[in-house]
C-alpha cells in the first residue's frame, strides 16, 4: 500500500521536529495570504480609492445618447486628444423631450446609431465623465496593493524557511556532535 504525499507536513510522525511543524504553518499562512489576502487587499484598496474620489456636482446627470454618424478613426499622436477616444457627434433627449446635439468622447470607428452614456450639467451641456480617471486610479492602486500583499507573503515565507533551515542545521550539527563519536570505530 502506497502512502499519500499530499499532506505530509500534517501527518503524525515521531521524527517530526518543531521546525517541521513551524514550516507547515508557514506554508499554510503564506498560501492563505496569497490566495485570499492579496485579492482582498486589492479589492478593498480599489474600492477605498473609488469611494474617496471627488463628488459629482448636484446638477450633473447621465443620459443615453446616440451617435449620429460613424466616429472618426484614431487621431495622430501629435493632435490634442485622449489616448483611446475621439470626439463624435451624439444626440440625446432632454428631460422636457427636446432633442440636443453635441460632441462627446467615444471609441474610434464606432458605427452610427450606437448608444453611449454622456454626462450633462444643469444647463444640458456635455461634460467629461467624472469616473474615467478615478476608475483607472482605483485599478492601479488595487493592483499595487494585491501585488504588495503577495510579495510580502512570499518574502515572509522565504524568511521563515531560511531561518528554520538554519535552525535545523544547527540542531543536526549539535546532535551529530553527541552521536558521531559513538559511531566511529575504536582504534587500538
Automatic annotation (TrEMBL):
PANTHER family: MEMBRANE PROTEIN RV1733C-RELATED. The chain crosses the membrane at residues 138-160. This is Integral membrane protein. InterPro entries: MT1774/Rv1733c-like (IPR039708). The lineage of its organism: Bacteria, Bacillati, Actinomycetota, Actinomycetes, Kitasatosporales. It comes from Streptomyces scopuliridis RB72. It comes from the Bacteria. Keywords: Membrane, Transmembrane, Transmembrane helix.
Amino acid at each position: 500500500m502506497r502512502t499519500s504525499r499530499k499532506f505530509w507536513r500534517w501527518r503524525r510522525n515521531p521524527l517530526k521536529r518543531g521546525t517541521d511543524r513551524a514550516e507547515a504553518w508557514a506554508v499554510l499562512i503564506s498560501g492563505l495570504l496569497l490566495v485570499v489576502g492579496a485579492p482582498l487587499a486589492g479589492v478593498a484598496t480599489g474600492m477605498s480609492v473609488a469611494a474617496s474620489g471627488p463628488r459629482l456636482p448636484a446638477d450633473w446627470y447621465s443620459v443615453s445618447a446616440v451617435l449620429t454618424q460613424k466616429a472618426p478613426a484614431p487621431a495622430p499622436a501629435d493632435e490634442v486628444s485622449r489616448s483611446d477616444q475621439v470626439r463624435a457627434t451624439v444626440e440625446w433627449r432632454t428631460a422636457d423631450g427636446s432633442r440636443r446635439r453635441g460632441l462627446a468622447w467615444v471609441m474610434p470607428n464606432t458605427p452610427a446609431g450606437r448608444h453611449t452614456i454622456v454626462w450633462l450639467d444643469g444647463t444640458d451641456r456635455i461634460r467629461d465623465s467624472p469616473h474615467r480617471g478615478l476608475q483607472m486610479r482605483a485599478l492601479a492602486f488595487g493592483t499595487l496593493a494585491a501585488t504588495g500583499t503577495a510579495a510580502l507573503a512570499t518574502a515572509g515565507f522565504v524568511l521563515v524557511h531560511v531561518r528554520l533551515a538554519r535552525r535545523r542545521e544547527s540542531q543536526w550539527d549539535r546532535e551529530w556532535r553527541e552521536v558521531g563519536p559513538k559511531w566511529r570505530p575504536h582504534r587500538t
